User: Fold this.
Amino acid sequence: MPAESSPTPTAGIVTVTSNSVANEPFDPPAAFQFPAALYGPAPREIVAEVKKSSYVRRRRQTLINLAVVGLVCVGYSSTPVAKTLAWYLLPFEFLAYIGFAIFAGAAATAVWRMRNIGLLKYIRYGTPDVARICDVRKVRTVTNRVEQFRFEIDANYWDSETGQFVYGTFHTTEQDTQRNAHRYVLDLKPGEYTTVVQMPSAPPALYGTMGIDPAHELICKDGKPPAAISHLAALRSTGIGVVIVLIPIAAFWAMLYCAPVGNRIQDPTLISGFAGAALGVVAGLVFWAKRRLTATLGQAVVGVGGFAMIAAFSGAMLAIVSNAVFDQSASAYRTVGVANYWVTTYKGVFRAYEFECRNLSNGPTGRTEKHPILPELMERLAATRVAIIETKNGWLGMPWIRAVYPVELREIEPGQTHSGRTVKMDIPQPDGSMRSVSIGFEAIGPDGKPLPLSTEAEDEAVRIMATHKPQTFGVGP
Assistant:
């Protein structure tokens, strides 16, 4: 073995601590050898075998996963589902840019890692020596209220920087959540000798605990070195995250488009909300007891209260959605004139679309009311500013608006018949001339057939058209 990789002669040295192993004479076996990757003077070459280590594979896999997620975001942004979600969830409007940013971040990290080799610097620049294991234990840690664990190893070794024989504690990085700790094993026992690597600019580390050499992987999960998350698992995690985001969006959508008329909280909603809150309290207590989480009384109350609030909200939403989904009552139609539109963004994330209208049967001075509307209908309402609202009684007795049907313009071709009122319009042509056409009004119902229009609806449509397009409308001033 080259002299640069020979153990420091420390046989017979005794450390005085409360640990019984540490107090025994330090006497490495004569056959002890350092890993082959540490042979020779620094800086050393990173051999191909090291590039198969779990540490290198995890770093590579993380970058690939980021790139895959970025490309999926870019591809998904052009799908009809993503375009529909972009109406209501602002980040989906920029999903392609988010995907490009994730992919660019992965590419930039790959370039940066070409110069920063991470823990492999211990192989390239480190000085190996012998350490004796005195104690090995799993230690619980808490980061952002997430319980994790790591290994702590007590060992004594020769400190090449100070020239002293020391007793110290080595910490691994957090390995996993605390509930998975039983699946991990560190193949080191008190009294065994192993390799410690020291560097002037970094803390000493036990070689076999870093996962940088496939021939010396001492930490195993289910009998194998810990692996990086797979591409499929990364996509699955991304999908779960999207679903978690979409749950409040679905609830938000339900409140807007299935809510009872007037958005009043009615008895079925209250009953479902209270029932959900009770179940939430029970679920929170069971969850807290099963996981045996350590917390103060205040934290426990907040945790269980959070369960209760989420369950109460879910119960109320269930009542509102069930009232609409299972409704078999007859539809009632009324004609309204549109007074205004709103697009409201909540917390910079959620968008809601509303329109203000009044019943035409109440005359031009009738009371106005606000209702949610699907965004794709807003442009269709703009032509005549008249619509037919379909209302149903609700499965739980809470009246709700099933749909809004815009009253739209339809050109009447020569020879065609139209049962309703028609007007003349002059349509500008590309050559600058005007073409006179007959226009009728119609609202297409859920079965694809025109809904009957009242006289008030047609009169209001004519008035709006004459007001907004007098230069082309036949009855303009």
